[in-house]
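Help needed: design a sequence for this.
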């Protein structure tokens, strides 16, 4: 605020008046309230209890289910299965809840959604469907149906005349989302809003949407693979580090309560170039098989390195560690490595398994099929400790593994607990110690885990 004696418009002196203080005073006047403030003990906590959706893997990520009045933002790439999953959730809600479920689609016609519902068995008289692109029409459908669960697919296709801007623009998305959130909070509706994802993997539209909603979920998956994962990056009603696993099938999407069988090779005898590790997604341990192939470089020049679903920089570092600290010459070989089933193994705990798989492929010596390897490999060839080792070993023991290479720095309590479950941990301090332990296990009994894997896959189907 500064003194201004001459008007910039009419060039007259002494005609400029100060009005900012009056406006600020008007903004601080008391206004109407929606409901009077009450002691915190008078509020019913049952109004914020989660209701199970009927889809167990989604309930795991949500923290038990959907809370009435909560708003969930579900983001994912096109074609990953967001609409199919929400159709299944809406069908489960309509089948069990007293209030109906409503799906508002702005991208498909009602006939297209009905066709998908017949294919997945999601047709129910308590499930309503509307195809609208106007916010006022969406509110009218909510008034007419009085649902307890609403799906907006997607928020980028809904517009309002109250705000200027193109459909899908930042002002439109912000206004539409704010209006839908207000209605959901006032009427106790569990609202799920679908959002598109940009090329860099972030949610399209303003970042303010992630702050407005209660839960932010990312639906991930490769369209060439049947595996789908849901991750929570924000959750006001539960943990934000849970992961849900799904399998995309012709008849819909199915939750995988025990997905480890998808990430292991289906063979009766061990082959060179494979090693099993246990990764942790959120709080969930998953047994993953690493496969490697090395080929002599006869063409000259720089040998090729190709890695799929692995951290390429860490894998290149492991090649250097193998070449420097062991007797295995991988510098003159082309190296190819990947995981089984489309599962990513990018955490440092998979370093030891990747290194052993590459060493096994180079030496053409298979590893025991009941062996798993867990540990981070440093540039000096040392095996470093990793987190959640007790859960990793418990999952490996449950799937029938009898030996595990683990970092030597872990406490004896974790090692003793794993031994009780039938898994024998072998602490190793360096990469050479791990290879020496593998050499000793090759001469011992090698019980095949194939019958257990078949039983697991039989339960999933």
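Sure. Designed sequence:
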């Amino acid at each position: 605020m500064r003194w201004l004696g001459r008007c910039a418009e009419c060039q007259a002196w002494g005609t400029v008046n100060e009005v900012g203080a009056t406006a600020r005073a008007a903004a601080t006047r008391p206004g109407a309230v929606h409901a009077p403030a009450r002691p915190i003990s008078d509020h019913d906590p049952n109004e914020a209890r989660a209701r199970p959706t009927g889809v167990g893997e989604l309930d795991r990520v949500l923290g038990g289910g959907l809370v009435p009045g909560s708003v969930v933002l579900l983001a994912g790439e096109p074609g990953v299965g967001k609409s199919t999953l929400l159709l299944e959730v809406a069908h489960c809600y309509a089948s069990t809840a007293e209030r109906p479920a409503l799906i508002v689609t702005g991208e498909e016609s009602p006939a297209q959604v009905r066709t998908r519902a017949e294919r997945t068995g999601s047709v129910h008289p308590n499930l309503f469907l509307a195809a609208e692109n106007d916010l006022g029409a969406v509110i009218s459908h909510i008034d007419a149906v009085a649902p307890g669960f609403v799906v907006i697919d997607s928020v980028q296709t809904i517009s309002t005349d109250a705000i200027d801007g193109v459909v899908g623009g930042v002002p439109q998305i912000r206004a539409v989302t704010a209006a839908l959130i207000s209605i959901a909070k006032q009427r106790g509706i569990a609202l799920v809003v679908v959002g598109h994802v940009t090329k860099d993997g972030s949610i399209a539209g303003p970042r303010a949407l992630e702050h407005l909603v209660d839960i932010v979920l990312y639906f991930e998956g490769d369209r060439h693979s049947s595996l789908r994962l849901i991750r929570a990056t924000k959750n006001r009603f539960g943990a934000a580090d849970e992961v849900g696993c799904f399998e995309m099938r012709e008849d819909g999407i199915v939750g995988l309560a025990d997905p480890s069988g998808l990430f292991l090779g289906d063979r009766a005898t061990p082959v060179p170039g494979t090693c099993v590790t246990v990764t942790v997604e959120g709080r969930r341990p998953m047994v993953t098989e690493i496969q490697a192939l090395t080929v002599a470089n006869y063409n000259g020049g720089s040998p090729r390195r190709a890695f799929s679903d692995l951290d390429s920089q860490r894998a290149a570092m492991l090649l250097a560690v193998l070449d420097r600290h062991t007797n295995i010459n991988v510098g003159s070989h082309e190296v190819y490595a990947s995981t089984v089933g489309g599962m990513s193994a990018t955490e440092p705990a998979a370093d030891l398994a990747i290194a052993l798989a590459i060493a096994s492929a180079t030496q053409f010596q298979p590893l025991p099929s009941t062996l798993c390897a867990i540990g981070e490999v440093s540039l000096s060839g040392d095996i470093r400790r990793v987190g959640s080792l007790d859960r990793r070993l418990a999952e490996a023991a449950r799937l029938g593994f009898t030996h595990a290479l683990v970092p030597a720095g872990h406490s004896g309590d974790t090692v003793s607990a794993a031994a009780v479950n039938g898994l024998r941990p072998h602490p190793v301090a360096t990469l050479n110690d791990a290879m020496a332990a593998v050499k000793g296990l090759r001469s011992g009994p090698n019980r095949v885990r194939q019958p257990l894997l078949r039983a697991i896959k039989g339960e999933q189907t």
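Residues 48 and 286 are 32 Å apart (CA to CA).
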